[in-house]
Design a protein that fits this description.
Layout lengths: L1 H23 L4 E3 H4 E3 L5 E10 L12 H12 L6 H5 L7 E9 L8 E8 L10 E8 L5 E8 L5 E4 L4 E4 L4 E10 L12 E6 L4 H14 L3 E5 L4 E6 L7 H9 L2 E3 L5 E5 L4 E4 L4 E2 L2 E3 L4 E12 L21 E4 L2 E15 L5 E3 L5 H11 L3 H13 L3 E2 L1 E4 L1
Parallel strand pairs: 15-24
Antiparallel strand pairs: 1-14, 2-11, 3-4, 3-6, 4-5, 5-10, 6-7, 7-10, 8-9, 11-13, 12-13, 15-16, 17-23, 18-22, 19-21, 20-21
């Protein structure tokens, strides 16, 4: 009894201090549950092969082989005995072979529902209006953990004729909300754990140190240790034996100051630039001028006079560009007039001052007055000059 009472008091005090910490935390802090996961608690992927029926002529070409065999086997399991000749004559474009996938969440119980994704693997044109027949979903160990069945919801369509077609979104894949029923549970011995692992989504030694420091300061009777940049282990004392779930609930809601490296992410395909709050820039002078080159071509036609003498018999007059033709009264000559113009933008040197905050950096770069495409080039050049204190990442 004494141990149980002490355990409850420890957790109650921890909850009180945790509430105060959350209320006093800064806006830049994040809960541990938002930046990390608990070791051993994760989703498990399931997959299965099935048939979608009831399509309006948009299913697989039945001659692809595996769809025909699957359909024949399904009919046989329903008690419809088919001769070999009948199997060969199967012809239906209202059926499509599909792969069904789903994520089995942790602690899912038998009878609970999960969403499934349905994707065509044949040459079906659309799964719109189809019904997925009962499909077992297996895990990596080959065991059946769920069974899926239901109408497929497709957020698009496809229609057309011999000369034209129209489509919207991707009609050969869809979803079934709550389309699978869990048939087997995953076993967790969470209550008997003596060590709880906290795995950061983004490894960082500073953030991991903050996690290891904050947890023992809030929860009495635990010890936290940094294993590496992404893992912090929490050792439970005897007072928390059999009460690990309540402890994890407390740990998840502890607020931590999240640190991250200074980084500039550039997407040259779309001209997108994203900077982290720790990006800094040293004082540097920048001159950026665009070079414009314009090439213009015009065609000039020289037409002979009406009574010009004809060229000698049997002669052919064709210029190097193929623009000269032989006319009975002379030659028609087509010439090309090419004009090349080069213009260089005259921009002066602009001093970009040292930025102490991300606002200073943005203000200084905006003062240059260039487009995002030009700013990408400027950032790359500043990085090469050693004046950008951040990692430059191209995607």
């Amino acid at each position: 009894m004494m141990k149980t009472k002490a355990k409850k008091i420890s957790i109650g005090v921890a909850v009180f201090f945790m509430a105060g910490l959350i209320a006093a935390s800064s806006l830049s802090a994040a809960r541990i549950k938002d930046i990390a996961s608990i070791g051993g608690i994760r989703d498990n992927q399931l997959i299965g092969y099935g048939l979608v029926v009831g399509l309006a002529g948009t299913g697989d070409d039945i001659e692809n082989g595996f769809t025909k065999e699957t359909l024949a086997n399904m009919l046989s399991r329903q008690g419809l005995g088919m001769k070999e000749s009948a199997r060969e004559d199967l012809d239906s474009d209202n059926v499509a072979s599909v792969m069904v996938s789903a994520d089995l969440p942790p602690f899912a119980k038998v009878g609970s529902k999960i969403d499934v994704a349905v994707s065509s693997i044949g040459n079906a044109e659309s799964l719109r209006g189809g019904m997925l027949l009962m499909t077992p979903l297996r895990g990596a160990d080959g065991a059946v953990y769920a069974v899926a069945q239901g109408p497929v919801s497709v957020g698009g369509f496809s229609a057309g004729g011999s000369g034209a077609s129209v489509s919207k979104n991707h009609p050969t894949s869809g979803r079934i909300t709550n389309g699978a029923s869990v048939e087997k549970e995953l076993k967790y011995d969470f209550e008997e754990r003596r060590v709880v692992s906290i795995n950061l989504y983004r490894p960082d030694f500073t953030t991991a140190t903050g996690v290891a420091t904050a947890i023992p300061a809030i929860v009495a009777g635990v010890k936290a240790k940094i294993m590496d940049a992404s893992t912090v282990t929490v050792n439970l004392e005897e007072s928390f034996r059999g009460n690990a779930l309540e402890l994890v609930s407390i740990i998840e809601n502890v607020n931590i100051e999240v640190d991250s490296p200074a980084m500039v992410v550039i997407d040259e395909k779309t001209g997108t630039i994203v900077m982290g709050e720790n990006v800094r820039i040293s004082t540097v002078a920048v001159a950026h001028g665009n070079l414009y080159i314009q090439i213009k071509e015009t065609k000039d036609v020289s037409q002979p006079a009406p009574f010009a003498p004809a060229p000698p018999a049997g002669s052919t007059a064709i210029d190097a560009g193929g623009g000269t033709v032989v006319a009975p009264g002379g030659q028609t000559v087509v010439t090309t007039d090419t004009t090349v113009g080069v213009e260089e933008e005259k921009n002066r040197l602009v001093v970009v001052p040292r930025g102490v905050t991300i606002q200073d950096v943005v203000r200084a770069l905006n003062a240059i007055g260039v487009t995002p495409g030009d700013l990408i080039t400027i950032l790359q050049t500043i990085k090469s000059a050693g004046a950008l204190q951040a990692d430059l990442k191209l995607i």
